[in-house]
Specification:
The structure holds two protein chains of two kinds.
Chain A lengths: L4 E6 L2 H5 L2 H14 L6 E6 L11 E4 L3 E3 L7 H10 L15 E3 L2 E3 L22 H6 L4 H7 L3 H11 L11 H10 L6 E6 L8 H8 L1 H15 L3 E6 L4 H16 L15 E6 L9 H8 L23 E5 H13 L1 H5 L2 E2 L2 E2 L1 E8 L5 E6 L4 H8 L9 E6 L5 E3 L10 H6 L8 E6 L4 H15 L5 H4 L1 H13 L7 H15 L3 H5 L2 H9 L1 H10 L19
Parallel strand pairs in A: 1-2, 7-8, 7-10, 8-9, 13-17
Antiparallel strand pairs in A: 1-3, 3-4, 5-6, 11-12, 13-14, 15-16, 15-17
Chain B lengths: L10 H5 L1 E6 L2 E6 L4 H7 L23 E4 L6 E2 L10 E3 L3 H16 L15 H8 L23 E3 L9 H9 L5 E4 L6 E4 L15 H5 L5 E3 L3 H8 L5 E6 L20 H11 L3 E4 H22 L5 E2 L4 H10 L13 H17 L6 E7 L3 H5 L15 E4 H11 L20 H4 L6 H15 L17 E8 L2 E9 L1 H13 L6 E5 L17 H17 L9 H11 L5 H7 L10
Helix pairs in contact in B: 9-11, 9-15
The chains are: A alpha/beta, B alpha/beta.
The complex binds flavin mononucleotide (FMN) and iron/sulfur cluster (3 copies).
Flavin mononucleotide binds next to strand 10 and helix 20 of chain A.
């Protein structure tokens, strides 16, 4: 089933408290009554972070956000916007005014936009393989099959493509390692676990252009010498699962998957595996464990997946967005790709703007764009004319960007230099009305919740960090608490088993450094200038 | 399968060496070593918690950290292979601080009441806190709390003391292939749980207690019966009788500072007599009896076409394993009770008659190397006299604790003899304590009974030693008798799957649940590791060699028992008292 639009309802403990369940129920009822059930799908989504009032509704692909919404608003939204295509201006979240273009609402201005991985999303019927083929779909696969495996690998290597799943590892090298690893049985895996809060770019690709992923996987499989692939999709994305299932079906029917593809002797089958619902399952080795039916816990590395991955066989595992870049590279060549983005980090990146920014939404732009451009040109500035406090990139485990980094080009290498990270490309914008202790605690709570529990520093360290931040917020901070936080954070970063624990203290460490005074004020003076933390009243000194 | 650290590497690998710079010193180590192994070869024992030789490396505790030049973070040495030219620092400031921080984190979620813990003074966490000089725990906060799980007859689980090292899980899975326990929940809320969240007593756990040896802390220990035994000793109405298993005499000295592998039979008897037992009997006596009964059963099956292979039945952990996972082999398993139960049955019938005491007034206690024996003695089938054959089973550790409570230093005791008549035994019974021992003892008797000739050589070397599965073909007057021996249930599973698939055919199989046999049982002193097991095994064979009688059927007390009381081996009375039956159990 193909839907014309998706409406995302925020479902968090907070928003449910504020009536989100009733909003969703009403929405579904109204949509059914308007006869739109077959065209519009209601989905649940997580928090956007920042100061978006709860509960919010997000309409895709229009990129219109209503916040906060009440049950009484729903009828109007359905009849006006969903039925007649006229967004209800009155209810749109402050500043998030869209502009109509090519029949869709898009964030504006679009000058910076460059669509590579989203080349088809919203333009084709994702359920139709003919649509995909009409836009040069599967042409790259045909071309790849006429090349040698080494040539395919070399082309991707030359393109300079870096993995978009967060780590930024050169994709071509990964494919080469897998190709060269000993063994007849090899696998390709697509990481579509997309667990970072505030991120849904992979979902957009899976649901908007599922064939591009299948084609890319087939190309990678050919390059490394695999004939089987797994797409690991989080179970919370049933639409994505359905879209990919359908795509597999039609590609198999058309002979683009299966035995002897396009008359060659190359065969490839793709299977879907549903995610176990834990954030850690997005980590590549946990993901492999999960596919094998085990508890989602990271494996010891080395060996890395290209040496020993799924069932111990050489495996190339790539993120959805990474894969979506591959067919255009094969088709247009490495040089074409290198012309986009920065010399050390070519290509585009899909960013998701969320939080306290005027224009919320998703945009694909060349690597190297600055945060200032993203926030002010694309995002229309911080909401309510406030100042940016921090921008969290790539969700909680990505990097934390402070105002001094507004002009740093957004690319893997440049952000790493600033002790930050690009991550998956979600940008959670947090304005200066927020208390830094509160912001940091929120991120730390995420990790406390998502830690798999395997290793000591992450399992217990996260707990202790949240406890300390909590007491600081309650005005019970102790003299050496900031030092303890630093030690715990440093220890987690240095000694955790996997990337989750190693990245978990990033926001804490960065903010402890940059917002030292604000932290100190909380601890020593029991003062929260943003008046977010409920400090106990300061005890008056008795003058004797 | 588990990768055994320090495995004997193939010759090619051995030649394949790499150069490392370890703490500024150049060393050469095999290319296949981990950094942890490399350091050990160079004389530096990196502290560890989740690591255990013989189990798959885990890398979870983050104690064995080292600094490797060029690595962005500290490295867990247990899971990191060496590389040519690696530069390793094992005690830099960064390393020391990080190790200590992680130790403090573990301690911050641990009850700091070592005095109340079963593992006080034999705890790896406690040792590390001492070695690292932890004087205060900087990180304080909420601690996880779980009710103590006392559902199992054998293993007590006090998860408040658990540090989630996973050694028990890996032992249960990799060594025992039982898979009774695993991690449950996630993050700070993680804990160890039997599958389906059942209490351990309702799970497939076979009570072997190997997880207790794996546990670095006091989270796992035996279910204690010390108080009940004291109460019995202090009850003037009761005749309190003790039996000590073959494997105790080579391990009970350890808690008293005697070297591992010391034989201390006489001191042991003297000590427990002082503790207040009215009679101290020897399970070795009933081990000899087991050989007569089981040997007869085997000869009958062999010569009259009964079900083969016959499989031994003296290891109660193995019995429960069979009932869960190999019920189709039930008829292959000998119907003989284990020596512990045979002794109990005899004491409450034969001996009770002899001394004119009613069975109800006898308390039969045992000291066993085994936690599964606690469960075995509670099985419903084990009531030959109408009363439980054996009332209380103590582990070697519990027994040593009782002696110390009373103030008896076993090491300084004189040597005394077991009581008559259930205290006389042979070398054949002595070797019961080691893997292959039951087989060897049985072969000594079976050979002579079948052939009517004297065995030219008593030592069956093929069934000795620490290999997981051992095989031998014994020529019994022209008939090749094929036997196999395995210890550790993972090895047993390998062997039995081959038997089941028809890949191999044997006449007689010995299976012991614990690695090394009973000397490596779950109730033995801590530490029990490969090295200690080897020393105890050596002592067992020395004991055998030193004894004047080394064949069960030559035991005069056994001969007299049949004459006076039992009648024929496998006869009606023997069957009633000394044999048992089994039942099917769920696989999950
Ligand atoms: C805790 C954690 C969570 C992760 N989650 C995801 C995820 O949801 N999706 C993803 O593509 N990569 C995720 N990764 C990164 C993967 O481990 C891996 O690097 C990636 O799949 C490689 O693909 P790429 O080279 O195409 O980026 C995660 C890593 C960590 C440490
Ligand atoms: S850092 Fe450790 S506890 Fe945290 S998710 Fe990774 S392995 Fe699990
Ligand atoms: S006693 Fe044995 S079977 Fe039971 S959990 Fe421990 S190791 Fe596993
Ligand atoms: S019970 Fe013991 S062995 Fe098992 S995980 Fe806990 S501390 Fe480790």
């Amino acid at each position: 089933m193909l839907y014309r639009a998706h409406v995302l309802v925020e479902m968090t403990s907070n928003s449910i408290h504020l009536g989100a369940s009733q909003v969703k129920e009403r929405l579904e009822r109204e949509i059914a009554q308007a006869g739109l059930s077959s065209e519009i799908k209601v989905l649940e989504t997580g928090p956007l972070g920042g100061g978006v009032p709860s509960p919010f509704l997000m309409v895709y692909p229009d990129n219109v956000m209503y916040a906060p919404v009440h049950v009484s608003d729903i009828e109007e939204i359905v009849t006006e916007h969903l039925l007649k295509g006229r967004p209800v201006e009155r209810l749109i979240a402050a500043g998030a005014r869209p502009e109509r273009k090519e029949g869709y609402f898009q964030p504006s201005p679009l000058a910076k936009e460059k669509r590579v991985v989203l080349r088809n999303s919203g333009l084709i019927d994702p359920g139709s393989i003919e649509d995909y083929i009409a836009r040069d779909g599967y042409l790259a696969l045909g071309k790849a099959l006429s090349m040698t495996r080494q040539q395919v690998v070399d082309m991707i290597k030359d393109s300079g493509l870096l993995g978009r799943g967060g780590a930024g590892f050169p994709t071509g090298l990964k494919l080469e390692f897998t190709m060269k690893a000993a063994g007849d049985e090899k696998y390709v895996v697509c990481n579509a676990d997309e667990g970072e809060p505030g991120t849904f770019k992979d979902r957009l690709i899976l649901e908007g252009d599922p064939h591009s992923i299948l084609e890319a996987m087939a190309i990678c499989a050919y390059a490394v010498g695999a004939d089987e692939g797994y797409i690991y999709i989080r179970a919370e994305y049933p639409e994505s699962i359905r879209a990919v299932e359908k795509a597999i079906e039609s590609a198999t029917e058309s002979g683009l998957l299966g035995d002897g593809i396009l008359g060659s002797d190359f065969s490839f089958r793709a299977k879907i595996r549903q995610g176990a619902g834990a954030y850690i399952c997005g980590e590549e080795t946990s993901l492999l464990e999960s596919i094998e039916g085990k508890r989602g816990e990271p494996r010891v590395k080395p060996p890395y997946p290209p040496q020993a991955g799924l069932w111990g066989k050489p495996t190339a595992i790539n993120n959805v967005e990474t894969l979506a870049s591959i067919p255009p590279i094969i088709l247009h060549g490495a040089d074409w790709f290198k012309n986009i983005g920065t010399p050390t980090c070519p290509g585009t990146k899909v960013f998701t703007l969320t939080g306290n920014v005027n224009m919320l939404g998703l945009i694909e732009v060349p690597m190297g764009i600055t945060l200032r451009e993203l926030l002010y040109d694309v995002g229309g500035g911080i909401r309510g004319g406030r100042e940016m406090k921090v921008v969290q990139t790539g969700g909680p485990s990505g990097g934390t960007m402070t105002p001094d980094m507004l002009d740093v080009p957004m690319a893997f290498d440049t952000l790493t230099q600033f002790n930050s990270a690009l991550g998956s490309g979600a940008l959670i914008v947090i304005d200066d009305s927020h208390c830094i202790v509160d912001v940091v605690k929120n991120f730390c709570e995420f990790f406390l919740h998502e830690s798999c529990g395997k290793c000591t520093p992450c399992r217990i360290g996260n707990k202790r960090i949240v406890e300390i931040l909590d007491r600081i917020q309650r005005g019970k901070g102790q003299e050496n608490d900031l030092e303890l936080l630093r030690i715990l954070g440093e220890n987690m970063k240095e000694t955790s088993f996997c990337g989750l624990g190693q990245a978990a203290p990033n926001p804490l460490m960065k903010c402890l450094d940059y917002f030292r005074e604000e932290f100190e004020k909380h601890v020593t003076e029991h003062l929260c200038d943003c008046q977010v933390c409920e400090m106990k009243p300061k005890r008056k000194k008795l003058s004797v | 399968m588990a990768k055994v650290a320090g495995d004997i590497k193939s010759e090619q690998e051995q030649e394949n060496m790499v150069n490392l710079l370890l703490d500024e010193k150049e060393i050469q180590v095999p290319a296949s070593a981990t950094v942890l192994e490399a350091c050990k070869l160079a004389g530096i024992n990196i502290p560890t918690l989740c690591h255990m030789d013989g189990l798959t490396p885990y890398g979870g505790c983050r104690i064995c950290l080292v600094e490797i030049e060029g690595q962005p973070t500290l490295t867990a040495s247990c899971v990191t292979p060496v590389r040519e030219g690696m530069k390793i620092q094992t005690s830099s400031k960064k390393v020391r601080e990080a190790r200590k921080a992680n130790l403090e984190l573990l301690l911050s979620n641990h009850p700091l009441d070592c005095q109340l813990c079963d593992r006080n003074q034999s705890c790896e966490l406690q040792d590390l806190a001492y070695e690292f000089g932890v004087r205060k725990i900087r990180f304080q906060g909420e601690q996880q709390h779980h009710e103590v799980d006392l559902s199992s007859p054998s293993v007590k689980r006090d998860l408040d003391r658990c540090i989630l090292c996973g050694r028990c899980i890996r032992t249960c899975a990799e060594i025992q292939s039982v898979f009774a326990i695993d991690f449950a929940n996630r993050g700070f809320e993680s804990y160890i749980s039997p599958s389906l969240g059942l209490p351990l007593g309702e799970s497939v756990c076979i009570n072997c207690g190997q997880c207790i040896h794996a546990c670095p802390t006091g989270a796992l220990s035996e279910v204690e019966h010390v108080e009940q035994v004291w109460d019995a000793i202090n009850d003037p109405e009761k005749t309190v009788i003790l039996q000590t298993a073959p494997a105790i005499r080579v391990s009970i000295g350890e808690p008293f500072g005697m070297p591992q592998g010391t034989i201390s039979t006489g001191k042991m008897v003297a000590s427990f007599r002082r503790l207040g037992f009215d009679y101290v009997f020897d399970t070795n006596f009933s081990a000899d009896l087991t050989i007569i009964e089981e040997g007869t059963e085997f000869i009958t099956r062999l010569t009259q076409g009964g079900k083969l292979p016959l499989i031994t039945s003296c290891s109660p952990g193995w019995i429960k394993f069979m009932e869960h996972f190999y019920p189709e082999l039930m008829e292959n398993v000998s119907t003989c009770k284990s020596p512990q139960q045979m002794m109990g049955a005899l004491v409450k019938t034969y001996f009770a008659q002899k001394i004119g005491v009613e069975a109800k007034d006898i308390v039969m206690a045992s000291i066993m190397p085994c936690t599964a024996k606690k469960y075995e003695c509670q099985r419903d089938e084990m009531k030959a006299s109408g009363y439980q054959d054996v009332d209380y089973t103590l582990t070697t550790r519990e027994a040593a604790r009782m002696l110390r409570e009373k103030g008896i230093n076993l090491a300084e005791m004189p040597e005394e003899e077991f009581d008559d008549p259930l205290g006389i035994s042979t070398g054949a019974a002595a070797v019961f304590g080691a893997t292959g021992g039951v087989m060897e003892a049985a072969l000594r008797t079976v050979y002579e009974k079948v052939t009517g000739e004297t065995l030219p050589k008593l030592d069956f070397m093929d069934v000795r030693g620490i290999d997981g599965v051992k095989e031998a073909i014994v020529d019994v007057k022209g008939t090749p008798v094929r036997v196999a021996v395995s210890h550790g249930l993972g090895n047993a599973r390998t062997l039995l799957d081959k038997v089941r698939a028809g890949d191999v055919a044997y006449h007689f199989i010995e299976i012991m649940a614990c690695p090394g046999g009973c000397i490596g049982g779950g109730g033995q002193p801590i530490p029990t590791n490969l090295d200690v097991r080897m020393k105890r095994i050596e002592a067992i064979y020395n004991l055998d060699r030193s004894l004047p009688v080394r064949k069960s059927h030559d035991n005069p007390a056994i001969q007299k028992l049949y004459e006076d009381f039992l009648g024929e081996p496998n006869g009606e009375k023997a069957h009633h008292l000394l044999h048992t039956h089994y039942s099917c159990r769920d696989k999950m």
